[in-house]
Amino acid sequence: MTGNTFGQLFKITTCGESHGGAIAVIIDGCPPGLEITEEEIQRELDRRKPGQSHITTPRAEKDRIHILSGIFEGKTTGTPILLLTYNEDMRPEDYAEMKDLYRPSHADYTYFMKYGRRDYRGSGRASARETLARVAAGAIAKKYLKLKLNIEILSYVEQVGHIRTDIDFRKVTADAIEKNIIRCPDDSVATSMIQLIEEVKNVGDSVGGIIRGVICHVPPGLGEPVFDKLPADLAKAMLSINAVKGFDIGLGFQSVTLRGSEHNDPFRVDHGKVKIDKNDAGGTLGGISTGEDIYFRVAFKPVSTIAISQQTITRDLELVTLDAKGRHDPCVLPRAVPIVDAMAALVIMDHYLRYIAQYEKVSVK
């Protein structure tokens, strides 16, 4: 299986399955001298781990991170970093009766068509549990970007089903995002979102939504002008997350309703620096960062495993009724917020190192 590595200079490779022994990530290309602890990485993992509240999966995983290489005396050494978390609450027996059938909207069928076999234990490698490794790596990238450039990455739940907040993303804070279990910084809307998730959970169904991502204090000049455009790499990063079905940046699809005279962002000078009014483009022009905040949206489909009977087929092409078992989120969005954060950090980190490698050394000592 290829396609397990992401990035060029700041490169991560993940491994592990949902109900296998462990989930791990190797980070190659991290500059030396960055102070980082297991506790700092753990804080990000705790935002993603299962069992956080009654609207997430009850799977009981501590997701305790272990640093096995690349960090010595509390600082990165410049050598590959290996982070690992052992799976503890595995129940592969929950999936035994599903090993020979294809669950609707899952990767069961496509994995089997590609490899001729599949790990049916909680989707194996196709499980969102793999994203634990991305969040661990993203914690290191976030720390570096904050110290080096004062970059802050904030993601929050903007919409669940038909319920949406119109809060101004420029005013959102990290504390406001973490104030409730849905991770929506608009308290009144958050209450309605939670009620909707409770409703779909009670009937055994699931619901999707949208996460808004914001990257603040990005310097101008990050991104390559052709195939490695910054928004293109952000799109790939977000679309690689399980259950993601859409991505847009700036005004995105709303742009098609505007004239050029309405959508264009005028330039101006502020205290000797170039500034951009409106920022409808979302912080990039020609695939390269402008220095304005980057903002985007990520659309998540409803979780595929539901407790409602569904018709499907077996590998022998027999029609059967599926009554799915296992422990699953009725809505993935609350736990997906730190995943969006992490993927944004990995993209910006990689492009910053690609940019700065042209000019100077990158050690943070």
Question: How are the secondary structure elements laid out?
Answer:
Layout: E1 5-6, E2 11-16, E3 22-28, H1 38-48, E4 66-69, E5 71-72, E6 75-76, E7 81-86, E8 101-102, H2 108-115, H3 131-149, E9 152-160, E10 163-164, H4 174-177, H5 187-202, E11 209-216, H6 230-239, E12 244-249, H7 260-263, E13 267-270, E14 273-276, E15 284-285, E16 288-289, E17 294-300, E18 310-314, E19 319-322, H8 333-356
Antiparallel strand pairs: 1-2, 2-3, 3-7, 4-7, 5-6, 8-18, 9-10, 9-11, 11-17, 12-17, 13-14, 15-16, 18-19
Helix pairs in contact: 1-3, 1-8, 3-8, 6-8
What are the segments in which pLDDT stays under 50 over at least 5 consecutive residues?
none
Spatial ordering of strands, largest sheet: 1-2-3-7-4
Q: Gyration radius, to the nearest Å? A: 21 Å
How big a fraction of the residues is strand?
15-25%
Number of helices: 8
Q: Structural class from helices and strands?
A: alpha+beta
**How many β strands by DSSP?**
19
Helix content: 25-40%
How far apart are the termini?
Answer: 38 Å
Compute the average pLDDT: 92
* Elements, N to C (H/E): EEEHEEEEEHHEEHHEHEHEEEEEEEH
Largest sheet: 5 strands, antiparallel
The backbone outline, from C-alpha atoms, is: globular
